[in-house]
Amino acid sequence: MSQSPSSDIAFTPSVKALQTRLGSRAQYAKMEARGEFRTEVSADLTLFLAAQRSFYLATATADGQPYIQHRGGPPGFLKTLDSETLGFADYRGNRQYLSWGNLLDNPKVHLFFMDYTHRRRIKLWGTAQVIEDDPDLIARLHDPMAEGVPERAILIRVAAWDINCPQHIPQRFEAADVADALAARDARIADLEAQIAALTQG
């Protein structure tokens, strides 16, 4: 029995039926054949994650009610642990525990990453578990640049991931990056003005 393509995690029978009816099934069947939904954490994905300051974490209740939560931290706070596993330290927040509660009933998750600077987005499917009783793991995932004390670890077992096209993604830049660029520009202007003044006086 042949193994189902990794993209089946997103392309369910209902999705494929719609693709067939609306004329895009052949295109995505070719994508499935090429195995474009990857299942392991690659070097390029690790490099991408090392630069990310935030992502969106989607969970669902036992009866399928979805919930999405923003997660943020220093660049690279979501860490690669091995070729199948990502992890991050969980800090005290508003103490609603919505995502955690959902994971107790339904471990399936979806992570959505937006890189506005380079107009890239990555979708990642997997399962997650919350670890409370492993201080070494929590310390390993803790980023010293993060605010607060880590209370637990959240591990993501990767099932599949895919890079989306850049269409409709607005280009935005981090404030710190803009400030650095402006400072470099201002320094260059000051240097050129000094050179002009020296030539004029000479």
TrEMBL record:
<dbReference type="InterPro" id="IPR012349">
    <property type="entry name" value="Split_barrel_FMN-bd"/>
</dbReference>
<protein>
    <submittedName>
        <fullName>Pyridoxamine 5'-phosphate oxidase</fullName>
    </submittedName>
</protein>
<dbReference type="Pfam" id="PF01243">
    <property type="entry name" value="PNPOx_N"/>
</dbReference>
<feature type="domain" description="Pyridoxamine 5'-phosphate oxidase N-terminal">
    <location>
        <begin position="48"/>
        <end position="147"/>
    </location>
</feature>
<dbReference type="InterPro" id="IPR011576">
    <property type="entry name" value="Pyridox_Oxase_N"/>
</dbReference>
